[in-house]
Amino acid sequence: MDDDVRNIVLGVIAAGLSAAIGWLARTYFWKRRLRRKQAFFGLPDNSESLLVVNRDAGGTELTVMRHDVFALLELSALIKDCNANAQVVAHDAAQQGFGERTEFCVGGPASNRRMAAHLHSLLPGIRVNVDAEPGPDRGAFQIGSERYRLEAGKSEYVLLARLTAGRRDGARPVFLFCGQRAITNQAATRYLARNHERLARKHGNHTFVLLLKVVNSQAYGPDVVELVADVTRAAQAPLPSTEAAPARTSHRAP
């Protein structure tokens, strides 16, 4: 074998080895990234999850708002990426215990009985005004001693929470998307889809409660979202006594 042929053969072998090593490395990092994502969402391969949907607060039938449908689509894509499955359940038909399956609960307590139960049981420091009558505090969030009012289309708030109910492993969490309007629920699911890796690095597989602000939704839809604060501690502590909470209608992200 002359030198030219030997060099060609060695070059082909080296190229093949490099391609194989590159493929193995990409596969390893892809699988590691997938496992981290699955751990954060509590969705191992072929696992089952619940998508708990609300109903239109103005109707008696199970009528899901358009933006809530979009929120469910965002969540369905995340679940599929984890090689898991989803079952859609109406809020008043979901009767599973905590930690049996990962749960994604969408909608405020006025239209989602399951959300109201989660807030009452797990986040006693949060109160949502569910009055049907129009007024300045309709839909307002009280978190600890702070109140966050709704300015429809301009400044709207939504809670994004990952709850483990004290379970140390946090293997099957409940995710809450509790917004003042349906478009804010979609904004929270989109925020989670875009930022889940950063949230996993920061919070691990533990409980967190974030207050998000959707800015000028009438112009930008659900795309412009600011992180107002991590309110985990305030949300888990009992509400302060009957003193009126100051109203807050604008916020800058920290």
Describe this structure in words.
With 254 residues, the protein is α/β, with parallel strands linked by helices. The protein is 38% helix and 22% strand. The protein has six helices and eleven strands. It has a seven-stranded mixed beta sheet, sandwiched between helices. Strands 4-5-6-11 form a four-stranded mixed beta sheet. Helix 2 links the parallel strand 1 (48-53) and strand 2. Helix 2 runs parallel beside helix 4. The protein is elongated and about 90 Å long. The model is unreliable at 249-254 (pLDDT under 50).
SSE order and pairing:
Layout: H1 3-41, E1 48-53, H2 66-81, E2 85-90, E3 102-106, H3 113-122, E4 126-128, E5 141-143, E6 146-148, E7 155-163, E8 174-179, H4 182-203, E9 208-215, H5 217-220, E10 225-230, H6 232-236, E11 247-248
Parallel strand pairs: 1-2, 1-3, 3-8, 6-11
Antiparallel strand pairs: 4-5, 5-6, 7-8, 7-9, 9-10
Uncertain spans: 249-254
Shape: elongated
- Class by alpha and beta content: alpha/beta
Q: Span between N and C termini? A: 69 Å
Whole-number mean pLDDT = 83
Question: How many strands, which pairing sense, and closed or not: the largest β-sheet?
Answer: 7 strands, mixed
Q: Give, in spatial order, the strands making up the sheet with the most strands.
A: 2-1-3-8-7-9-10
- How many helical stretches? 6
**Element order: H for helix, E for strand:** HEHEEHEEEEEHEHEHE
Q: Strand tally, please?
A: 11
Roughly how many Å is the radius of gyration? 23 Å
Strand content: 15-25%
Helical content band: 25-40%
